[in-house]
UniProtKB/TrEMBL annotation, chains A, B:
InterPro entries reported in the protein's UniProt record: Cyt/Met_Dipeptidase (IPR051458), Peptidase_M20 (IPR002933), Peptidase_M20_dimer (IPR011650)
Keywords (A to Z) from UniProt: Hydrolase, Metal-binding, Protease
PANTHER family, A to Z: BETA-ALA-HIS DIPEPTIDASE (PTHR43270), SUCCINYL-DIAMINOPIMELATE DESUCCINYLASE (PTHR43270:SF12)
Annotated GO MF terms: metal ion binding; peptidase activity
Domain Peptidase M20 dimerisation: from-to ranges: 199-358
Organism annotation: Cellulophaga fucicola
Name of the protein in its database record: Acetylornithine deacetylase/Succinyl-diaminopimelate desuccinylase
Keyword Metal-binding set for record: yes
GO-annotated biological processes: proteolysis
Pfam families per the UniProt record, alphabetical: M20_dimer (PF07687), Peptidase_M20 (PF01546)
Annotated CDD domains: M20_dipept_like
Source organism superkingdom: Bacteria
Amino acid sequence: MQDVKSFINSNKDRLLNELIELLKIPSVSADPAYAHDVLTTADAVKQALEKAGCDTVEICETQGFPIVYGEKLVDPSLPTILVYGHYDVQPADPINLWDSPPYEPVIKKTELHPEGAIFARGACDDKGQMYMHVKALEFMVSTNQLPCNVKFMIEGEEEVGSVNLSIFVKENREKLKNDVILISDTGMISKDVPSITTGLRGLSYVEVEVTGPNRDLHSGLYGGAVANPINILTKMIASLHDKDNHITIPGFYDNVEELSTEERAEMAKAPFNLEGYQKSIGINSVYGEKGYSTNERNSIRPTLDVNGIWGGYTGEGAKTVIASKAYAKISMRLVPNQDWENITELFSKHFTSIAPEGVTVKVNPHHGGQGYVTPIDSVGYRAASKAYETTFGKTPIPQRSGGSIPIVALFEKELQSKTILMGFGLDSDAIHSPNEHFGVWNYLKGIETIPYFYKNFTEMNS
Amino acid sequence: MQDVKSFINSNKDRLLNELIELLKIPSVSADPAYAHDVLTTADAVKQALEKAGCDTVEICETQGFPIVYGEKLVDPSLPTILVYGHYDVQPADPINLWDSPPYEPVIKKTELHPEGAIFARGACDDKGQMYMHVKALEFMVSTNQLPCNVKFMIEGEEEVGSVNLSIFVKENREKLKNDVILISDTGMISKDVPSITTGLRGLSYVEVEVTGPNRDLHSGLYGGAVANPINILTKMIASLHDKDNHITIPGFYDNVEELSTEERAEMAKAPFNLEGYQKSIGINSVYGEKGYSTNERNSIRPTLDVNGIWGGYTGEGAKTVIASKAYAKISMRLVPNQDWENITELFSKHFTSIAPEGVTVKVNPHHGGQGYVTPIDSVGYRAASKAYETTFGKTPIPQRSGGSIPIVALFEKELQSKTILMGFGLDSDAIHSPNEHFGVWNYLKGIETIPYFYKNFTEMNS
């Protein structure tokens, strides 16, 4: 496969421009205002897969946004790789913090990306990383080097919990049958320290509502005499962590996998520069659960974070009001063996139980998913590792990620195959944040590396 | 003054319609978008004062919204009453909770107001109560019964802290010279239990900002490893009260006036129906500082309430983000002897000191004012009490209010005269809330009672 580099070099502008076109469509699945754009994006993905060489591409309708399914079947006796990705993106707000509009992609140079990076919502998560696979397929098909069968399943609801994808997978086990699942929706340590994600955290996402009086009250006339829902909400949320930043929900840690001293020592070998980490996000100190390192806190330990909070008067100036209601969105990242539905239930039960008299509390579960760990001795992992060795010249480091792709555990359960997480993004890419970007180098390196995975995986299976 | 009732009866529709016209102008001082409307309202008040019989009315410019000043001077040897009120209103949001648009006044009957109540922002606070004075003047002038001199000072920034009024008062001591200040910007216990407000709480209003990372972060990649500004803000706010709901700011209670057992016993005699109180605001339990009754908690005790909180993702659906910043608006109601500037400083110092490493905290003081207590043996109080006896047939109960009119303490200091708080609103009028209203009966009863105060005060001073 000597000519993948020359394919990239001679098609570089086109590879970038096609992705830029895709990034212009604001496919925000969380916000109904963008529903039409999400559908337009599904169509664009369908066309891209057809152009890249799929024999069949379908828009599979669901109760929500459709799944784009494509396949190129070479020979039933050869292995089948199922590529999963998503074409929906996170909301862009707070929009005023973007240096350029989120849906008008621009390529700008940065310290980490002297070759330039594409700035746009979805540049990395996941349009950019998903599109690497489309272009890798194009390369393999156009040069007659596709060594095995390939199936694509690109969904439009990853950012809102993949509820309809779960149903689709359960109903289409035969169609989706494969030998390995390949996903690029994670990151790597750095451009010169390639890594493969071997673990993902699970997720439980809930929204809580605290109601006090039946209307907003004047804080002078009622202040001090009635439960203020915002004060109560802050008290309730604050009580969810103890002074050592352990989570206080009864039963929360019951099934948490505790790593051995050896495993933790192994983890501690991964390169980590505390000063650089702090500098990159502008903090003067890290913060978290007592007894664990930063890398442990954001990978092997569960968390509870408020993702949004609101209530009362939030406009200009002052309003002396006691709000009738206060709200928060809270997510918990879970580790292997924690069941997200069980955790959601434990949270709801506990949160409701700590409400004082004078308020009522509602907990609305949003969505969730299980954590996932993949072994490093599988054929898939070895095929991926060897692919990185070829294109990076280094053996990649296996690494647990703090993020979640809730659907991965379900894939294993329903489709009985392992998932390989070949991510080419960087932590600094600001996914889910203003100024999300994806390095041009990373994008092209992904397109270069993926075909070697196909080659290695097929050879190792034969 | 036998004909005040017949004046009201024969002019009732006009008295209501004139107020309704004034209520149509959205004079929200807190929101720059309404600046033009605030100015239009000042003009309308000027015209109303001229029409009611003032000899001179001026629009006095300030650094902010103007003060409308009017006077009718009968004889320098007679007493002078200074009427204070405000023509600005609170913001109307949350606008979706109004049953009818806030600036399209309608008269509707309610359980407490079988004669009807005017529903509109400012109906009670303070356009309605202020306009009672304008109409009482009209009655006295038109029937040649004005027994003394009268000055009106109607401002447009009460809801945002009266900063420019303070300057105006200091610069116009001679012009504003008076023997008593009369204000209707408070309430009374009920329609059959008239009361006069003898105490107001002070106020310190601040806005706080907690900053963590320099940008919003992905809660999977960073969750658990960096201080989440929203979680931290909830912890910090929660820590401001202990388990007995005492405020934990060091020095906060140092100057709080503690009432004697006798005084508290006297207070406890005021009629109070806990069940009715809870029912009126839809709560199943009251809540507050241990060791104090509801009436004490909202009058003689200081408080700390969050009036607004926001941060992170607050839109539809879910976003797994760790916000860079979280905010809250916090107000403290103060009791006599607590100095608001001192309390603001104590708050700022304490709040900044409890911020953990990993975040920075800013405290921006908004505005504030001192508490106020007026004696019940003054000429002014006795004149007011006797006026209520005439029109209600009952001696009014002296009562401390939980609300604040920060400018009152300044009036006493700068103008050396006592303020009499003759309020005709009810707690259930929903001032500062959606569906604010003012009983037609209360409005007319105010117009009826005020002239007797003029008469009594002049006679008692002669």
